[in-house]
């Protein structure tokens, strides 16, 4: 499990736990076993819900989590570098230009992608944080009063209005969503 990633669990409108997936999964399992309704676990970085299988004991839940982890990334060197062959569709003039570049098409494409990653990292981080806040807000607050207005304020970057509209929402939901929006604001300021 990625220990740097953070997750947050809710049962209906109440926050249960925040932290590592292991800790949050255990809190969600306990809430589920006690009959709590609508137990949801969110990946804070993406705003997506995490599907957990609550059958069995807490150890069973943790074992399934560990088994669902992707295998470790390969080390250095081809194919251990993690090089993946995929199809790329380009116009003939693009292929001609790539063929004339030193190192061949693959080397040029890798350099172009690395350059784009460096140049757009701030914008990409901001977009990902914005999408995470949008997803979580839609899932948790889609039925709450002034949801549409809060969403408009969020996209208009009217964060004071967003804060006032969400202040009447259940405390744990409002606090969580304002925290995600604060991440968006920080990334917008850096970009």
Give a structural overview:
This protein is mainly α. The protein has helices spanning 21-33, 58-67, 92-100, 104-141, 147-155, 159-166, 171-190, and strands spanning 7-11, 14-19, 39-43. The chain has a 3-stranded antiparallel β-sheet with strand order 2-1-3, with helices on both faces. Helix 1 (21-33) packs across helix 2, helix 4 packs antiparallel against helix 7 (171-190) and helix 5 packs antiparallel against helix 6. The longest helix has 38 residues, at 104-141. The mean pLDDT is 89.
Please report the total strand number as a whole number.
Answer: 3
Return the string of H and E elements: EEHEHHHHHH
Give the termini separation: 30 Å
Mean pLDDT: 89
Strand order of the main beta sheet, please?
A: 2-1-3
- The multimeric state of the shown protein is single chain
**Tell me, what's the shape?**
flat
Residue share in β-strands: 5-15%
Any idea what the radius of gyration is?
Answer: 21 Å
Structural class: mainly alpha
Proportion in helices? 55-70%
Specify the biggest β-sheet.
3 strands, antiparallel
* Count of runs of 4 or more consecutive helical residues: 7
Task: Detail the poorly predicted runs.
Answer: none
Question: How do you describe this structure in short?
Answer:
The protein has helices spanning 21-33, 58-67, 92-100, 104-141, 147-155, 159-166, 171-190, and strands at 7-11, 14-19, 39-43. The longest helix has 38 residues, at 104-141. The two termini are 30 Å apart.
């Amino acid at each position: 499990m990625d220990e740097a990633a953070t997750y947050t669990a809710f049962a209906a409108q109440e926050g249960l736990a925040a932290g590592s997936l292991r800790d949050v999964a255990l809190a969600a399992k306990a809430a589920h076993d006690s009959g709590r309704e609508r137990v949801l676990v969110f990946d804070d970085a993406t705003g997506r819900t995490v599907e957990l299988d609550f059958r069995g004991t807490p150890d069973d839940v943790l074992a399934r989590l560990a088994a669902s982890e992707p295998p470790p990334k390969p080390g250095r060197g081809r194919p251990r570098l993690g090089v993946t062959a995929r199809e790329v569709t380009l116009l003939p003039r693009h292929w001609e230009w790539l063929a004339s570049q030193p190192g061949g098409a693959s080397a040029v494409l890798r350099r172009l992608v690395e350059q784009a990653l460096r140049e757009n990292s701030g914008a990409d981080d901001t977009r990902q944080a914005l999408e995470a806040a949008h997803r979580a807000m839609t899932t948790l607050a889609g039925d709450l009063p002034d949801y549409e207005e809060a969403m408009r304020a969020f996209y208009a970057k009217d964060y004071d209005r967003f804060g006032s509209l969400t202040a009447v929402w259940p405390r744990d939901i409002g606090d969580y969503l304002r925290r995600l929006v604060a991440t968006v604001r920080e990334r917008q300021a850096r970009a």
